[in-house]
Design goal:
Layout lengths: L2 H7 L40 H13 L4 E5 L2 H9 L7 E5 L4 H10 L6 E5 L4 H7 L4 E7 L11 H10 L3 E5 L4 H4 L9 E5 L13 E5 L5 H11 L5 H12 L1 H21 L3 E5 L9 H7 L6 E6 L4 H8 L4 E2 L9 E3 L11 H7 L5 E5 L5 H12 L6
Parallel strand pairs: 2-3, 2-4, 4-5, 5-6, 10-11
Antiparallel strand pairs: 1-7, 6-7, 8-9, 9-12, 11-12
The structure holds pyridoxal-5'-phosphate.
The site of pyridoxal-5'-phosphate has 14 residues, from α3 and α4.
Length: 382
């Protein structure tokens, strides 16, 4: 099956019991046993749930993986993945990444003896330089959140495999429609399904997809023990979202192209970061490892004082945290998504008070640009 068909039918096209063409929401915490020692395969929804099972199979197929586990959020998935490692282990992590992942690693797992090296992974020499014998994994976002830096998945995979470690790729921004990191040697793919996969700003979900089935029992045990498994209704919303992922991603990307060029021409904007620009430093690499640029754009305004004005005046584009949905959102990373990152580290990564991040949705592009245009207008510098 090709990718668009997998997103619709992968795992199960219909419910085998009733023939329902929409996977039923199995809203049951527990399942009756026919007799002692007998099970339908489902015992308790923290461990397995039939709605979740269809979603897990579908995403495993879409990401070309051996299996997938669905969690209650992206953070639940990332937290479970860390359980594969031991206190004392080190992870090299993209310095420019979602602030919640930074907070989870530095404020929580560091307390339990894990160490993290924050590195610009788009610069491969930095990866090599920061490797130590304690390094057991590379954790990368490509493109990164929010600076849109592109990291070479194949090169990172070859390097860390040579040292006996694992490559983990957070594929939230490009999704399996545009990028399949496992095809380039990654061992694990992470998703915040809250974003493009569910796609409508109405559900939380998170995923781990693994290239083989080697770690499945340990990860399922971590999920069962910790309890961050995906609930049936949010699972169903994510399944429904996957059906239109390809259409939404292509439309968001087409809209992002219009918005990115509009921003680039605007006199109040200093610099625009979008991996679809042919002069983006990661463009050639993106062309090799991805099939589309996606709908995420970051940009520096010339004057930080302009930002409160814009955030107050946007109307169609909503000032809100999150990304990847049907509706366009604008985010101020320095106080929202990346507020948990210490100032010096944030600034070194480029996340300053002049940076805005735009998640372009699927509205009409003329309306989007008109809204940005009116929001940018009327600012009087002090
Ligand atoms: C790239 C990335 N990874 C992971 C997460 C965490 O996902 P969730 O909010 O579903 O827990 C986010 C959230 O914004 C994200 O942007």
């Amino acid at each position: 099956m090709k990718q668009e068909t997998i997103l619709l039918h992968g795992g199960a096209s219909f419910d085998p019991i009733t023939g329902a063409v929409s996977t039923p929401i199995y809203q049951s915490a527990t399942f009756r046993h026919p007799a002692l020692g007998e099970s339908t395969g489902y015992d308790y929804s923290r461990a397995l749930n039939p709605t979740r099972s269809v979603l897990e199979k579908r995403l495993a197929l879409a990401e070309h993986g051996g299996y997938c586990l669905a969690f209650s959020s992206g953070m639940g998935a990332i937290s479970a993945l860390v359980k594969l490692f031991q206190p004392g282990d080190n992870m090299i992590v993209s310095a420019d990444l979602y602030g919640g992942t930074y907070r989870l690693f530095s404020a929580y797992y560091a307390k339990y003896g894990f160490s993290f090296s924050w590195v610009d992974t788009s610069d491969f020499e930095q990866v090599e330089k920061n490797y130590s014998p304690r390094t057991k994994a590379l954790f990368i976002e490509t493109p990164s959140n929010p600076m849109m830096k592109v990291t070479d998945i194949r090169r990172c995979a070859d390097f860390i495999h040579g040292k006996g470690g694992y490559l983990i790729v957070d594929n939230t921004f490009l999704t399996p429609w545009y990028q399949n990191p496992l095809d380039f040697g990654a061992d694990f793919v992470i998703h915040s399904g809250t974003k493009y996969l569910a796609g409508h700003h109405d559900a939380l979900s998170g995923f781990i997809v693994h290239s083989s089935d080697e770690a499945e029992p340990r990860l399922r045990d971590a999920q069962m023990s910790e309890g961050a498994a995906l609930a049936p209704f949010d699972g169903w919303l994510t399944l429904r979202g996957l059906k239109t992922l390809a259409l939404r991603m292509d439309k968001a990307t087409a809209n992002a192209e219009v918005a990115a060029f509009w921003l680039r021409r605007h006199p109040a904007v200093e610099k625009v970061f979008w991996i679809g620009f042919a002069d983006h430093p990661g463009y050639a690499l993106s062309q090799r490892q991805s099939r589309g640029a996606g709908g995420m754009i970051s940009f520096y305004m010339k004057d930080a004082a302009h930002i409160p004005h814009i955030l107050k005046k946007v109307s169609l584009v909503m000032f809100a945290e999150s990304l990847g949905g049907t509706d366009s959102l604008i985010t101020y990373p320095v106080v929202q998504t990346h507020g948990a990152i210490p100032e010096a580290m944030r600034l070194a990564a480029g996340v300053n008070d002049r940076l805005l991040r735009l998640s372009v949705g699927i509205e009409d592009p003329d309306d989007l640009v008109a809204d940005l245009d009116q929001a940018f207008a009327g600012f009087r510098p002090a």
